[in-house]
Amino acid sequence: MARVKSMKRKNKIINTVIYVVLAILSVIWLTPIAYIVYISFSPQDSQAALSQFPGLGDLTLRHYINILNPDYQPYIQWFLNTLMVALVTMVINTFFIMAVAYTMSRLKFKGRKNLMLVNLILGMFPGFMSMIAIYNLLKLVGLIENAPLFGLILCYTMTSGMGFYVAKGFFDTISKSLDEAARIDGATNAQIFFQIILPLSKPIIVYTLVQSFMGPWMDFIFCKVILRENVDSYTVALGMNSWLSDTGGKKGKHFVDFFAGSVLISIPIMAVFLSTQKYYVAGVTGGAVKG
Known about the structure:
Strand content: under 5%
Largest sheet: none
Helix content: 55-70%
Radius of gyration: 24 Å
Number of helices: 15
Order of helices and strands: HHHHHHHHHHHHHHH
Number of strands: 0
């Protein structure tokens, strides 16, 4: 009995330490977020807002009203551009990744392992190394001047199939006896993929959808290279960055607007993640099992 009490006391102490550490980490992680939200309500316009903390009575919605006013800044247009690019990229990337992952998981063909090895090696190189080549190719076909957003979507989707590893790990956990039974009934690979594998793969599909959406939503580097001076085609990240640059000698004029815009652009990501958290975690853990 004394041993049991000792174990309970020990577990209680361990759990208390864990909870305290997690609480401290939560405060560390949430403080910058709370700081950004608080500054976004500041009555200041310049960087003075960082050092002159407003009182609760001085907080204002002026900066949110400013960026949502089309006559003041094209933030809404930038937001819609980003949303369109992210949604189209999400759908295309998810389909390609699922298709390639199914092929690598279920179909056996000559050179399969070598192809996966080459894909793994190529994946070690950062994407921005190809930016100049991609820009020149898009400029050659006229997309930079005539359809920069379409060109940006091509940048995000042209190599999407290379990110199949996590989805393949998930597909490997699905019993292959289902495929064999379906083939006995005369099902084709396409029918097995769409009617059997995908309905059983909701967690990894949601995981891939979220990942594919977050990439374009938060990207800045490719947007900067592809969109360049096409202000009407800017994404939110690129447009808000222009608020912090010295344009016409007005550097800092939209400094606090940047904070307000940051809060607004984080809402869709937060909503998507919270609504799909259960499936997202299941997709990560399921895809971690490699076969």
